Amino acid sequence: MRFSELLRQLSSADPCCARWLAADPELGGAGALHRAGQGQLSFLEPGNRMVRHLDRCQAAALLLPRNPALQQQVQRRNIAWAALADPRLGFAEALELLCPEPIAQPGIDPAAHIHPSARLGGGVSIAAGASIGAGCRLAEGVVVHPGVVLYDDVTVGADSVLHANAVIHRRSQLGRCCVIGSNTVLGSEGFGFIPTAGGWRKMPQTGCVVLEDGVEVGCNSAIDRPAVGETRIGAGTKIDNLVQIAHGVEVGRGCAFAAQVGVAGGAVIGNGVILAGQVGVNNRTRVGDGVIASSKTGIQTDVEPGQMVSGFPVMPHKAWLRSMAALTGLPRLNRAVRRLERRLEQDTVR
Amino acid sequence: MRFSELLRQLSSADPCCARWLAADPELGGAGALHRAGQGQLSFLEPGNRMVRHLDRCQAAALLLPRNPALQQQVQRRNIAWAALADPRLGFAEALELLCPEPIAQPGIDPAAHIHPSARLGGGVSIAAGASIGAGCRLAEGVVVHPGVVLYDDVTVGADSVLHANAVIHRRSQLGRCCVIGSNTVLGSEGFGFIPTAGGWRKMPQTGCVVLEDGVEVGCNSAIDRPAVGETRIGAGTKIDNLVQIAHGVEVGRGCAFAAQVGVAGGAVIGNGVILAGQVGVNNRTRVGDGVIASSKTGIQTDVEPGQMVSGFPVMPHKAWLRSMAALTGLPRLNRAVRRLERRLEQDTVR
Amino acid sequence: MRFSELLRQLSSADPCCARWLAADPELGGAGALHRAGQGQLSFLEPGNRMVRHLDRCQAAALLLPRNPALQQQVQRRNIAWAALADPRLGFAEALELLCPEPIAQPGIDPAAHIHPSARLGGGVSIAAGASIGAGCRLAEGVVVHPGVVLYDDVTVGADSVLHANAVIHRRSQLGRCCVIGSNTVLGSEGFGFIPTAGGWRKMPQTGCVVLEDGVEVGCNSAIDRPAVGETRIGAGTKIDNLVQIAHGVEVGRGCAFAAQVGVAGGAVIGNGVILAGQVGVNNRTRVGDGVIASSKTGIQTDVEPGQMVSGFPVMPHKAWLRSMAALTGLPRLNRAVRRLERRLEQDTVR
């Protein structure tokens, strides 16, 4: 595809405001700025430190921010470019055009195991070795990869994709356009046990898991069902690999949880919350809308909306930076205090 | 089921000491106190902050603690109630009566792959797509969900349940009434490598994993086998999702490990130990009976029995609370010491 | 096998420098020093605290370090022994002789699902329920256990082993002699989303995952593919269970990552790096050759080669030890400073 043609197909949401077409290169792929080779497209964001690679960039064409100095620098290297308000977004759209994902063929493999009471919408794709339990309902266009297991009475909304070996336990409800990663488990039994004289006694977990539209979950994650009621993930929330969402958690819309996050039972997470890698959220904690927690944060108390937090125990990010700077100086501080004490001791003796 | 009938079926271990039956409601389900609707049962524990929802509770019947004031408050709302020594335990029993789990039908699906040398007890249930290796022995009543893989020579005790896509490696031994969550792996090769001039050299992992009776493991967890001997999990121990138990670990009876706990090779954990989410235990560390570790604790040294510990490095919970309180005050402390130093400097100059 | 015969078969890289053959016992297995029983081999390393069990050791034969005092102590107990430069390495070799792993039988199970366009080398073993996608190429001797799923266009080098229910996404490239643990996922979509007014917008992940020769990955781990280019794991690197390697990460040769490590997108890890359990590495961070990070370290800034680091924020291990020692003394330090302040206050008042 020619660069000029690709630019014409980019979303009207972000029309290119300027462009320079050198020889209007034919594009055969895409790459990172320092890796892109002949015939490849790349991009640069405002303020990105990749800019240091620009003078050796081998790409055929670049999506740039609205920055005339950068544009001239690129032009001098004879690289075609276009300037966008959001070059990363444009690159995402370009990738879909240049490297389209393969589309699963509709159809039901004869080696899939489908209970006769399951109801399948038009155009569903079910691969060999998948198991669909009694009473399941899959809407049109759902894709089920090999080895996926749906227990009974699972519902999956239109155009959702279930990757290989994912397991969805009974009565889970998935909305439209959800993506469930390989080996992820939804709707499994919450970890609820009551201490008794005879040992741990299971609290039956009779609730279910609900994923609203557009939720995506990575690989090897787990979302448990509660004793009663629902564990609910709000529309458009994205969850990475190896994440634990315990029973009865409520997650709002448009959140993003990075890998190895753990959210304990009954926590309530607002809308637009971002949790970085290895963050933990305690039982029944409330995290307000728009909170951002940096990696490894341990949220053991409620966090007000809009805060950026860090550390364990959790604190405002700036306070954490100050505490951590002070922490490394702690041995020195100790010595200073001992010096002061000796000094005053001598004063007293005198 | 009528509330009165349900109360008659609760365990004699905790008979209701008082009750008030309004109109003896017919119960059709159960819910959390603030969510329960018409015809639903709920419960309240002593000291639980859910009590604030009591005045708007819509449940038809409640299991309460032995607290006359609460009972009168509920009665005024015309909600039937019964008072129990342990209302949560009563609710667990009630859930089993009101929302019974479906029981797997005995039988072997023709699409299961079973080695002819495997021995299967009466009433086992083996689903489509499961693989049972050579020499495996499944006792009566074992349930094997779709996609489960048993390598050779695995033994599974009576009435154990293996959820979908779980993998049990060779020579693992599971006791009676164990529950293994979806996508969990037992008996995999321990992470044992020896540094040599030619790179990492594998230490063969020839041991096995043993789960005693009543052990439950959540989803996407892993319990490795050791080079020699056993990795052993004591009877009645419950393990949550995404937990790592390394090779050669010994875990006692009646422990509870929350999600994302990691226990490194050769650690020895006593009986009744509770590890909260994201706790780590170092190689060969010994953790005494009854120890409780709060979330994210890093246990890198032995812990005496009965302690409640926190932090990393691990310390008594109260010491950790004090240290953390002091940590947030550290920048202020730094400034105070600098003030003192300047002050004494001036004194000296004068 | 007789002990003398076993010694003859140990690698010439580490010939035993001395030995004492009592009655040249017949060996039927192996065990840890404090557990080994009659007819079993065990070993002891220099400086290992297992030495305290030596006086009660029941093993039939021991591999010892070059330490005459130890050798005499063992001889007094009438246990046969041999002294090696690296007794652990010798034990590893001995285990392979005494407890050989079963070898997968070559052949393709009729219940495997193999796309007709896949190309299979000689001697491959593909179990029931495995799925091999279009265009996959498996070299000679590859072993595919039950339930493994290969998406399209995956290549697997000779003698690699894919354990049960592992999932390899499209275009992943595995070298020779790789081992992929059960339920591990390779080549899944990286967690790349762009914030827009309409919510998170997916960055297409069109790259692939490359594992060089001899890479081993444990169970329930995930290695994601990037938007463009590769996620690459260097030759001989060993990765434990429940590890997350995000999109675009580069890992060098001969590294070892323990369980529950998480490496965020675009990080660059050198050769021979050791990350202990639950370590996290931030986006785009660079970790130099030979770095060792202790458990739970949070590497949020670049680390120079050869350092031993700890803590979060990351610092040199010795600085961390000092800071942590000071941390537990912090409440006391606080009190000392308050005493000093009061003291100077009184001085001023006087």
From TrEMBL, chains A, B, C:
GO term, biological process aspect, one: lipid A biosynthetic process
Highest taxon of source: Bacteria
Enzyme Commission designation: 2.3.1.191
Pathway involvement of the protein, from the record: Bacterial outer membrane biogenesis; LPS lipid A biosynthesis
GO molecular function, one term: structural constituent of carboxysome shell
Enzyme active site: 247 (proton acceptor)
Keyword Protein biosynthesis among UniProt keywords: no
Swiss-Prot/TrEMBL catalytic activity: a UDP-3-O-[(3R)-3-hydroxyacyl]-alpha-D-glucosamine + a (3R)-hydroxyacyl-[ACP] = a UDP-2-N,3-O-bis[(3R)-3-hydroxyacyl]-alpha-D-glucosamine + holo-[ACP] + H(+)
Any one cellular-component term (Gene Ontology): membrane
UniProt keywords, alphabetically: Acyltransferase, Lipid A biosynthesis, Lipid biosynthesis, Lipid metabolism, Repeat, Transferase
Mannose-1-phosphate guanyltransferase C-terminal domain mapped to chain residues: 110-189
Transmembrane segments: none
Domain UDP-3-O-[3-hydroxymyristoyl] glucosamine N-acyltransferase non-repeat region: 24-97
Family assignment from sequence similarity: Belongs to the transferase hexapeptide repeat family. LpxD subfamily.
Function: Catalyzes the N-acylation of UDP-3-O-acylglucosamine using 3-hydroxyacyl-ACP as the acyl donor. Is involved in the biosynthesis of lipid A, a phosphorylated glycolipid that anchors the lipopolysaccharide to the outer membrane of the cell.
NCBIfam families referenced in this protein's UniProt entry, alphabetically: lipid_A_lpxD, PRK00892.1
Binding partners and assembly: Homotrimer.
Protein known as: UDP-3-O-acylglucosamine N-acyltransferase
Gene name as annotated: lpxD
